[in-house]
Structure prediction request, 356 residues.
Amino acid sequence: MTIKWTPDAVWSTVLNFTKIDKELARRAYNLGKDVRDWKVELAQKDLIDIGLDKKRIVPILYRPFDIRYTYYTGKSRGFHCMPRPEVMQHMMQENLGLLTCRQQNKVGFYHALVCNNIVESCVVSNKTREINYLFPLYLYPKRNNPKKGSSGSVMMLFEPEADYNVKKPNLSPKLLEQLKMIFKKIPTPEQIFFYIYAVFYSNLYRSRYAEFLKIDFPRIPFTKNYKLFQKMSNLGKELTELHLLKSKALSNPISKFQGDGTNTVEKPKYNEKEKKVFINKNRYFEGIEKEVWDYQIGGYQVCDKWLKDRKGKILTLDNIRHYCKVVTALKKTIEIQKKSDKLYSYIEKELIEFDK
Prediction:
């Protein structure tokens, strides 16, 4: 079975889904019983009412480094259960978003990931208490009235309410004013985003605030030293480009796909001694060190999870190239984390005390 998460496959599914009886649709797509917030009949009605248009097929980040496609109508309890248009609309245009959690289980804080698309609610973890919150860097003009006070997986960065009249950074003016006063210049929104991202990936930061990170959103320590801020921000930019798989450093992957036979993923298995990940008895990815194989983002062991989600499917050439890039991105992430730890040790010595 080849992987059918392409735009064409989504379009074919949507067309067919709207034409068949709801009970037949339930069986055809293995949908199970209706639940309170999602019903086959309402999903079909939503597609028909909104009108079928290929422009509504959009990429969605499903799990770390796992982008799929969906048909996005933006209507709650329609084709999607809770599409969160009040926030996702900002990710339908050029943007960056920060994914993190409010609480973590005892395994530690690995729950931070960048995105530039709309997202599924369990990108960083499928555990209920670790559902991800999305913080867009920019806010775009409002398209409809957001529902205030609704609970769920999305949230604004620093600002509980925002002016939607013009595109603007989703950053507190008070924060920008205090950074300007201390740095004698205003950092760009991207610089601030990258700085935060590098801090979240510092192992020193994660260990120092381990207990607090279990119970609330991660807090961001800002340094008074602008040069130190810049260096940390530059590392965050590298991480961002790696995690969006846009880095030039990924043009020469550290892993290769080897062996003879079928490309069907049967049961992923890691051989530490040989540094190989087998997808079946004969085919494998080589050059994967144990620290890369074990690397975790949120609740997932990334390399293992990506393959397990494709069990029984045939890897295409693009899939193989993608996985080799992911392996390379994780290897370079580990290298950057070591650099960020060195910088973070100085950040703690020169922290900004913000006005309350």
